[in-house]
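May I ask for an example protein's residues together with how it folds?

___
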Amino acid sequence: MVQRTDLSGPGLYNICATGMVNRLTNRNSSVKHPGSTNEPNDDEDEINLRKLFEVLWDGKWWICGATLVSILVATAIAVMLPNVYRSEALLAPAQEEGAGGLSSLASQYGGLASLTGIDLGKRPIQKTTLGIETLKSRKFLTEFIQRHGILVPLFASKGVDLNSGALFLDSSIYDSQRGIWTRNVSPPRHASPSQQEAYEELYRLISIREDRDSGLVTLSVEHHSPYLAKQWVDWLVADINQAMMEQDVSKAQQTIQFLNNQIEQTSVADLQNVFYRLIEEQTKTVMLATVSAEYLLRTIDPAIAPEIEARPQRAVIVLLGAFLGLLLGTFAFLLIRNFRPNRQM
């Protein structure tokens, strides 16, 4: 028999009051009080860390073995890598002292000089920057390789005899007995390196750093032979000075010829005086080019054949190998333990 509940008057009031009491009781029971067992504390973290160390200690032989193997592999790689030496020279702009004449002309006759095609701006800075960009250009480096015949040591060298300076060549790249290229490359490359490939290889070995504040330039070359690295730096400095000298002399001679024609065609005395001043400055350029071989860049600290290799850094390779072995050993042990059927939790 179904019992009916009176929902009017005191019965409804009792039901509502009972529901409110139950909700308050549940809310109070869900509040965490200090000292209750539900609150996390540092003891649990200490226990978790202790368990982690215990697990890692159980796998110490796995971890140590993987680390040892990785150290041995890294040591073997570090020993097999050939030494690479870096030779560098410190250079300074050679024409910094002689810029006063053109600078003074630029302030007086800059507009007129520009009509004749003569640049009277900040020549020292522009010439140094132009020389550096010329040195890094494909045309200059390609001609440099052909001029000095360095294609074989550029590609086929694998070491050097420090006592005699003799270069060790890789026979799989170049056969020195028959004088032919034997390297196996896929198209579009050929056994004999192309000019583009030679440029890319030499450009990779050259480093040029310019200090914008002082204007000093550091030129360095890396190679398996410290003697070739030093020689190539010397050749690069001499060749860029020669190339920039020939370029400026040719331009100065053309300018002088042009100005002489202008003098013959004009009867204005003031213009003739300006042209004579410009001819004088261009003549100074030709004279400076014949006085010193260091036309663009003057050597402050010449290049030397280094005694200690720049790379590989064998100690760093071994340390990285040990660290990698430690990580791999730990990961492998935890992975195997996780999939072990009867592992202890």
User: Anything to note?
Assistant: Confidence is low (pLDDT under 50) at residues 1-17, 27-36.
